[in-house]
């Protein structure tokens, strides 16, 4: 670990110590996993909570459960269906903000009920450069982002996670399943499950960061540009088309722009 990362880590440790009794919002990704394990070593008392929702990939829940066992803290699996709120279910342009308000609101309520003084999330310094409605929702509800406050980046956190021996150290970035659907398309539970199953299949092929965008009945697969050639190899292509067709997607296409480049 280089000197700069060590300095930021020292700032984080000092902040976590001052916070006392914490509830960590654990997504199952590398950022919140590293935060939880560091907090468990330094804060007065730590518990973790993960939202179990139709919008949550099942793999993230499994990873969260594994991380909690490593950290040795109490885990709250909060079952929540944000789609009961029309402002989320109808998937308007500000759906992410409204969804995060619901989620963080539940976490704040849980922390208060358990006598935990602060709720913290895994936002990092790189996230501040993006448009993150969820960060605005968190700030409005008093949720702290100690990784961001300490200046830790995604690269820093991957290195810290490796040093801690966390199995998610190299896990690709994840996101709510609703991000695969077009704005204004109602969030259907059956479709969300199909998207999750499609992405799990693609990840099991070793393609790394994957998104299965839905446009009408079509699946538009995004992978990192370096993985496009592998995805379109004949044998892999045939397996992918067969599986996603079985899941009800037709046609099955690939975005040649790669991850993050799909337009429309």
Describe this structure as you would to a colleague.
The chain is of the alpha/beta class. The protein has two domains: 3-164, Rossmann fold; 188-254. The chain is 47% helix and 14% strand. It is built from eleven helices and seven strands. The protein has helices spanning 3-19, 30-42, 58-71, 86-89, 95-113, 133-140, 146-150, 154-164, 189-204, 228-231, 234-246, and strands at residues 21-25, 45-52, 74-79, 118-120, 210-215, 218-223, 252-254. The strands form two sheets. A four-stranded parallel beta sheet has the order 3-2-1-4, sandwiched between helices. Strands 5-6-7 form a three-stranded mixed beta sheet. Strand 5 (210-215) and strand 6 (218-223) form a beta hairpin. Helix 2 (30-42) packs across helix 8 (154-164).
- DSSP strand content: 5-15%
The quaternary state of the protein chains shown equals single chain
Helix content: 40-55%
Main sheet: strand order: 3-2-1-4
Largest sheet: 4 strands, parallel
Please, what is the CATH homologous superfamily of the largest domain? HUPs
How many domains make up the 3D coordinates?
Answer: 2
Total of helices: 11
CATH domain class name of the largest domain: Alpha Beta
Question: Descriptors for this entry?
Answer:
264 residues; 2 domains; four-stranded parallel sheet
Topology:
Elements: H1 3-19, E1 21-25, H2 30-42, E2 45-52, H3 58-71, E3 74-79, H4 86-89, H5 95-113, E4 118-120, H6 133-140, H7 146-150, H8 154-164, H9 189-204, E5 210-215, E6 218-223, H10 228-231, H11 234-246, E7 252-254
Parallel strand pairs: 1-2, 1-4, 2-3, 6-7
Antiparallel strand pairs: 5-6
Helix pairs in contact: 2-3, 2-8, 5-6
């Amino acid at each position: 670990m280089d000197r700069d990362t060590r300095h930021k880590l020292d700032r984080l440790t000092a902040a976590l110590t001052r916070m006392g009794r914490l509830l960590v919002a654990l997504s199952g990704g590398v950022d919140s996993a590293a935060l939880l394990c560091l907090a468990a070593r330094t804060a007065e008392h730590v518990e973790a909570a993960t939202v179990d929702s139709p919008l949550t990939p099942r793999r993230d829940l499994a990873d969260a459960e594994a991380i909690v066992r490593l950290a040795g803290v109490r885990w709250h699996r909060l079952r929540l269906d944000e789609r009961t709120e029309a402002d989320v279910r109808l998937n308007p342009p500000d759906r992410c903000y409204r969804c995060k308000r619901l989620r963080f609101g539940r976490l704040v309520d849980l922390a208060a009920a358990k006598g935990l003084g602060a709720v913290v999330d895994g936002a990092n310094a790189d996230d501040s450069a993006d448009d993150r409605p969820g960060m605005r929702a968190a700030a409005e509800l008093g949720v702290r982002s100690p990784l961001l406050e300490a200046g830790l980046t995604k690269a820093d956190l991957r290195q810290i996670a490796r040093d801690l021996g966390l199995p998610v150290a190299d896990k690709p970035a994840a996101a709510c399943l609703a991000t695969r659907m077009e704005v204004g398309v109602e969030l259907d539970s059956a479709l969300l499950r199909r998207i999750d199953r499609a992405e799990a299949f693609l990840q099991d092929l070793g393609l790394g960061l994957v998104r299965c965008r839905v446009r009408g009945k079509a699946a538009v697969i995004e992978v990192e540009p370096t993985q496009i050639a592998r995805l379109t190899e004949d044998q892999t292509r045939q397996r992918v088309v067969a599986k996603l067709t079985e899941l009800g997607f037709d046609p099955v296409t690939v975005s040649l722009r790669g991850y993050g480049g799909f337009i429309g």
